[in-house]
Design a protein that fits this description.
By secondary structure, the chain is of the alpha+beta class. The protein is 25% helix and 40% strand. The strands form two sheets. Strands 1-4-5-6 form a four-stranded mixed sheet, with helices on both faces. Strands 2-3 form a two-stranded antiparallel ribbon.
Length: 129
């Protein structure tokens, strides 16, 4: 399966649950400025500024929350736990910035990890696999 196919499967499986919400974290770079000249598919910008999109460098492909029940001092209360899933193919590279992002999320009590399948995504949220 491709990374996109794995991600779609994970989004479909976890998106159908009532205790989990996932959002696609699109990372990228664009340029913003005043159009000085436009010619077909070419645009020249005046006062250009680089704009990075997405949560953070190394930010996971899928960001969200999973509802959990806290015990014993908060018995019965539900809280949302930060969820970060970085989708990869089995041979996909795992850059240090992505490893660091996921590790920091776990250090703060979040559920985070790399997933190459729906089963691995379910294991990240503490179910199955």
């Amino acid at each position: 399966m491709t990374e996109a196919q794995i991600q779609t499967a994970i989004e479909f499986t976890l998106g159908g649950r009532t205790d989990t919400r996932l959002f696609r974290n699109h990372r990228g770079v664009a340029w913003h400025g005043l159009i000085a000249e436009q010619n077909g598919f070419s645009v020249t910008l005046a006062h250009p500024r680089r704009v990075e999109t997405g949560l953070a460098p190394g930010g996971a492909d899928l960001i969200g929350l999973k509802r959990v029940v806290i015990t014993p001092d908060m018995v019965g209360q539900e809280v949302g736990v930060f969820l970060a899933i970085e989708v990869k193919t089995p041979k996909g590279k795992r850059p240090d910035d992505q490893k660091n992002f996921l590790e920091k999320a776990r250090q703060f009590g979040g559920m985070a990890g790399f997933a190459t399948s729906v089963e691995e995504a379910l294991a990240i949220i503490g179910e199955g696999g």
